[in-house]
Amino acid sequence: MAALPHDSSDQTNSSKKQSIDIIGIQEHRWKGSEDFNTKNTQDTTWVLYYSNADARSNGGVGILVHKHLYKFISSVKNHQISAGYAPTKIADDEDKDRFYDQFTKACKTCPKHDIVVFFGDMNAQIGHNSQGIAHKNDRKWSWMHPNGYKRELDHIAVTEKWRGSFTNCRAYSKVELNSDHKIVSCHFQLEFSRQVLEFKKHTTFNWMILPNDNEKRTNFQTKLNSALTENLRCNNDISTDKMNNILISTITKAAEETIGKRNLNPWALEVTLKLIDNCHNLKMKYLKQNESHRNVINANHLVNKSYKQDRE
């Protein structure tokens, strides 16, 4: 904007119609009593956070936030939203260097996992299309020179990690700004990468061998008693949860060293598998050669009977 009027209802009403909740303000030219100020709009539906303009009332940046987001400003810690504007091409090199040094410093001070958003009049053009959704040219340019040519000078920058959460970046002509710039907005929908959960494989030990194998049963009891005695001697005053963990780990280690894992047998035995093949062959003969369907029924009966025996 060329300057932010004290009555900003035109801007806020137009933004509300386009479902815009946060507005970055550049060059508002306001001066407050503090370095960082807060001000409510006249309709009390928006709150303006802004820094002061200089002594000549030039510059100044701020962020307009709709009331339904205002309550989150002091509690949400992992969002960093900043507004600014870059010096023009004809500005002094010292001013340009100072701006980009401040911009770089602000980005580096943000934790790497935070959602960092920076928007403003960057007075610069970028290369390929990065709106997220293809738009016609009228929705791309954000500034028009008095001579009539148009440029994309206003941008919204986000950290690469959260790039997928920001879509449909475009410029609006319907939002009244009283400026030679158009408002640029984007849609934000938080997306998290899918986490692949790693499940720990449960080990099944061959406990059924203990009643029948005296040697392994004796070795297991000896190992278990020795380990439990040592652990209890070293941990006299421990909690119930810790005692439970010690007991589980001790039994597991003793079982690994003496009993071993249980080899799981195939659920269906070889006899059943042969009956299944025979049933399949009879079914194919019935379909192709019109043989008796009674043979297929009898074969299915034998398969089911064999399955039942395998379960037992």
TrEMBL record:
Origin: domain of life: Eukaryota
Gene3D superfamilies according to UniProt: Endonuclease/exonuclease/phosphatase
One Gene Ontology term of the molecular function aspect: catalytic activity
Boundaries of every Endonuclease/exonuclease/phosphatase domain copy: 19-163
Protein name, entry field: Endonuclease/exonuclease/phosphatase domain-containing protein
Organism from which the protein derives: Octopus bimaculoides
